[in-house]
Amino acid sequence: MPVTVTLPQVGESVVEGTIGKWLKRPGDKIARFEPLVEIVTDKVTMELPSPVAGSLLRILAQEGQIVPMGAPIAEVDSADIPAGGAAPATPPPAAAQPPLGAPRPAAPPPPAAEAPGVHASYLVKEVRPVGPTGGGPGEEPTAETPAPAASAPSEASHARLSPAVRRLAQEHGIDLTQVRGTGLGGRITRDDVLKYLEAGPPAAAPPAPQAAPPQPRAAPAAGQPSAAAADEEYLALTPVRRMIAEAMTRSASQIPHAWSVVEVDVTSLVNLRGQVRAAFESREGVPLTYLPFVLKAVAAALREHPALNASWGGDKIVLKKRVNLGIAVAAPQGLVVPVVPDADRLSIAGLAHAVHDLTQRARQNKLTLADVHGGTFTLNNTGALGSVVSKPIINYPQAAILTTEVIQKRPVVRDDAIAIRSMMNLCLSFDHRINDGAESGAFLQAVKHRLEAVGPNTALY
What Rg do the C-alpha atoms of the chain give, in angstroms? Predict the structure, then answer.
């Protein structure tokens, strides 16, 4: 009996996903809940399990193809279920319908009996976050899947616009009837709107030129593959790399970044950590790095300066009531940003445990969807790479991102005398629509003051 596998709804803000890699091919046997395909969304890369045992009958969505939530992606023939491996009497919950505004796929041929869907709760076996900005899935097709022909705008395609596309068009005053959609069924994607913004309104077509004699063939444009480029190598973009690229472009193009840096004397912090580190790690079983001290200072400073714990809402500024700190982690598949929820309620010891748990699971590809949701402010410890000063890109749609740089012993002036102190730079990129230099500077000074106030009496619990 053929069973249609659909793309399940995995989050309120996720309206579509990219087919990353098929783990089975037509004809392959598959057990119930065995990974069938990798799906890349704007939050995580996840393995979608088969809802039944049997064999893969047909693939309906090719690798690199972008499909809306609820769309059919494969058919599994459950007639080949081995003895003792029959599907349960009670099927898993049906996959959620596409959210309002997302395109609804054409109905598949009616199966012999009702086919069970796949619920998002079955996706927690292994998920891999895709990048620091939570950007949407890449809209461009991969080399394996040619781009669908651009379709003319229509009322039907406009009725299926995602909330992100509607919001982007409203912010920039774009008449969507002038935008050509390249998505499924002529749907207008976020990438279509961004390309329209870059190109500007279409100009009137010039008169057709007179026929000209044949011209010599032009040399390939810079950056284009050619037979003569024997000393170059071309790497195909993975879905994860494509999403990171789109997220970075989105943040840099839509957020007016401003930047500031202060230097902090962390001599007392270095001394305290050196004194308690061995005993702490022996007692708690996790390393005591400098990051929990910084997280504690940042969380408290955000409570004093809530405009840094915010996002841009078009006609308003949205202040976040919870302090959920994202931590940039270099994982095998790329940069990921797991979140420490309610970081302002944790002690330094509690933050050390949270940081260790998230970084370990990020590097082992064991983060869940909940681990990368809800961040309100991001930190990146670029000092671990030896960086002295950096200018980070904001994790869209947050209001700011902070980097901690390498701690160095430098000669500084203290009380009209030269002293050797442990110094560290704090670098802040902030959304200039939400904050100006005064607010961002006051926030940096608040973080600096707390770090410089660390001493022998600082409580770890």
Answer: 26
pLDDT at 330: 87
More reliable by pLDDT, 164 or 19: 19
| Tokens matching residue 432 | 């200039």
All domains of the chain in start order, with CATH: 2-108+118-129 (2.40.50.100), 255-452 (3.30.559.10)
CA–chain centroid gap for 145, Å, is 23
Q: pLDDT per residue over 355-398, tens digit each?
A: 999 999 988 888 887 898 899 999 999 999 999 999 999 999 99
Question: Which residues are CB-contacts of 198 (< 8 A; sequence separation ≥ 6)?
Answer: none
Q: Dihedral angle at the C-alpha atoms of 430, 432, 434, 438, nearest 10 degrees?
A: 80
| Exposure on the CB side of residue 375, measured as CA atoms within 13 A | 28
- Long-range contacts, 106-113 (Cβ 8 Å, 24+): 108/4, 108/60, 108/72, 108/75, 111/1, 111/2, 111/3, 111/4, 112/1, 112/2, 113/1
* Sign of the dihedral defined by the CA atoms of residues 8, 102, 183, 186, in that order: positive
Contact (CB, 8 A) for 1 and 112: yes
Tokens of 296: 């504690």
* φ/ψ of residue 194, rounded to 5: -65, -40
Q: Which residues contact 213 (CB under 8 A, 6 or more apart)?
A: none
The DSSP symbol for 367 reads B
pTM of the model: 0.60
pLDDT per residue as tens digits for the range 219-259: 555 555 555 568 899 988 877 778 788 888 999 999 999 99
Name which of 7-16, 79-88, 282-291, 410-419 the model is least confident about: 79-88
The answer to whether the CB of 396 falls within 8 A of the CB of 251 is yes
Q: Residue 243 pairs with which residues in a beta bridge? A: none
Strand, coil or helix: 398: strand
- Name every residue whose Cβ is closer than 8 Å to that of residue 110 and which is 6 or more positions away in sequence: none
pLDDT score recorded for residue 196: 81
Distance of CA 75 to the CA centre of its chain: 29
Chain centre distance of CA 204: 39
Among 14-23, 127-136, 243-252, 424-433, the range with the most confident prediction by mean pLDDT is: 424-433
Q: Which residue in the block uniquely carries the two structure tokens 């009958």?
A: 57
Q: Which residues are catalytic?
A: 432, 436
For helices 348-363 and 291-304, the axis angle rounded to 10 degrees is 110
List Cβ neighbours of 58 (8 Å cut-off, separation of 6 or more).
26, 74, 75
Structure tokens at 262: 């202060």
